[in-house]
Write a structure and sequence with these properties.
This protein has about 450 residues and is of the alpha+beta class. It is built from 13 helices and 17 strands. The strands form 4 sheets. Strands 1, 4, 5, 9, 10, 11, 12, 13, 14 and 15 form a 10-stranded mixed sheet that branches. α9 packs across α11 and α11 runs antiparallel to α12. The longest helix is centred in the last third of the chain and has 19 residues.
Length: about 450
């Protein structure tokens, strides 16, 4: 199991119909958007030194880093929220809709059009901040971030800068056994909200990860969390969840970070893993003054990173407080009400299942479905790990092959607990349900098994 520390969660929003590009500055999280045409034009203008990393060289480089170097990896994750309307206006958003069909004067930045913050965006940010164990700022604010792109008609983006909505959290996750397993803690910096379109939360991790597989598992756990909270569908293929990774290397024992390189818009877990491993290898071969602080893209077909642009500085964005939006002020009662409504999170389920011996994934899912149907947690665990497990062992069946559904197990437990039938009769019914299926109520009526009061 591993934990990730978080710096911040901040609020952002997409533009009208862009491709998402994000950047992090000084440990904070920001969002920008570019069209695919802009990306291509930017790439063509840049002529950095190109380094090819053959497969055998990459393997040697990874072996070398294990001996002599340490990789430092941080991730900016961008989560598009599943709100009915955009962040600052009432325009709807539907994935795949035609360009410029859901826009208004606020979207295009016409003079006199004032933004109005969508309250659901704040609610989603608070939910995620609490789920990631962050400290919430009851008072936060928006800023204008200045830059010019063809798909940004205002010439600025409404974002958060110095006061995010949440900061200083952590996330626990389980690393695959083939990659060492065990428990680690990765940090989260902050979560924030963005500009004139679809609302976006950005989560910045601390530079706690050391391998591509750790980064991929971290992103997968964030996807599970946002889906569980129902604040985003987390579909990476639609751009609802994307990752920018920051990679640098340093000699083992050195405290100072090396030159950071950012890889933009990774939209699959395998891409995160492969892009990081490639970039580590590239930097090992270049280690020294040849590594340039820049933004790179991952080319899936060629299995390599390529230069996109050199990094900008904070001064280029000329941040200042957003004059058209008031501060975001949260009451403690509001935060507490959201906290009390949070569902059991994936990590909490895993810890609970481990304590009860429900470590196998299919058994854990069966158990979750049983208690979701109203069964007592302790009784459900006892039945599954006792009589049901013994039956599966004797019959050489998996939990997915037995005829008893989680819903009927919950009904059986409720019938015993409520005194309708005795525990002894319950066991008799159990084995018939396991072998033949059917319903608890049907068997009780058919065999006239109701317990006399």
């Amino acid at each position: 199991m591993a934990s990730t520390l978080f710096r911040t969660i901040r609020l952002h929003s997409f533009f009208i119909h862009p491709t998402a590009l994000f950047r992090r500055r000084n440990g904070f999280l920001y969002c920008t958007m570019k069209s695919s045409q802009t990306q291509t034009a930017t790439q063509e203008k840049q002529q950095p030194p190109k380094v090819k990393v053959p497969q055998h060289a990459q393997s040697k480089a990874l072996d070398k880093i294990a001996r002599d170097y340490e990789a430092i990896i941080g991730i900016e994750t961008h989560v598009q929220l599943s709100t009915l309307t955009k962040a600052f206006c009432s325009c709807p958003y539907n994935y795949g809709s035609q360009p410029n069909t859901s826009i208004c004067p606020i979207c295009v930045g016409l003079p006199g059009a004032l933004p109005v913050l969508n309250s659901k965006v704040i609610e989603s940010a608070v939910k995620l901040g609490l789920a990631l164990n962050c400290k919430l700022f009851l008072n936060s604010k928006f800023n204008r971030k200045q830059y010019v792109y063809p798909d940004l008609p205002k010439g600025y983006q409404i974002s958060q800068f110095d006061i995010p909505i949440a900061t200083g959290g952590c996330i626990d996750l389980d690393l695959p056994l083939e990659f060492g397993g065990g428990h680690r803690k990765f940090g989260i910096t902050r979560v924030d909200l963005n500009r004139a379109g679809v609302p976006l939360l950005e989560i910045v991790s601390e530079p706690d990860m050391r391998t591509g597989i750790e980064a991929a598992e971290y992103a997968a756990e964030l996807q599970r969390v946002v889906r569980h909270l129902r604040i985003s569908n987390g579909n990476m293929q639609e751009g609802s969840l994307r990752c920018d990774v920051n990679v640098s290397i340093r000699p083992l024992g050195q405290l100072e970070f090396g030159t950071k390189v950012e890889i933009k818009n990774l939209n699959s877990f395998s891409s995160i893993n492969q892009a990081i491993d490639f970039e580590i290898s590239r930097q090992v071969l270049l280690h020294g003054d040849q590594i340039v602080q820049e933004t790179r893209l991952w080319e899936e077909g060629a299995q390599k990173t390529v230069t996109m642009r050199e990094k900008e500085g904070l001064s280029d964005y000329q941040y200042f407080p957003e004059p058209d939006l008031p501060e975001v002020i949260l009451s403690q009662e509001y935060v507490d009400s959201i906290c009390n409504s949070l569902p059991e999170l994936p990590e909490m389920k895993r810890r609970r299942n481990e304590k009860m011996g429900l470590s196998m994934q299919d058994v854990a899912e069966y158990f979750d479905a049983t208690i979701s149907s109203g069964a007592d947690i302790k009784l459900a665990a006892n039945w599954i790990m006792g009589d049901i497990a013994a039956y599966m062992k004797n019959e050489k069946l998996s939990i997915n092959e037995i005829k008893l559904t989680p819903q009927e197990l919950a009904e059986l437990i409720a019938s015993i607990k409520g005194g309708t039938i005795s525990g002894k009769i319950g066991k008799e019914i159990l084995f018939e349900l396991l072998a033949k299926g059917g319903t608890v109520k049907g068997l009780i009526e058919e065999k006239d098994l109701i317990q006399a009061s």
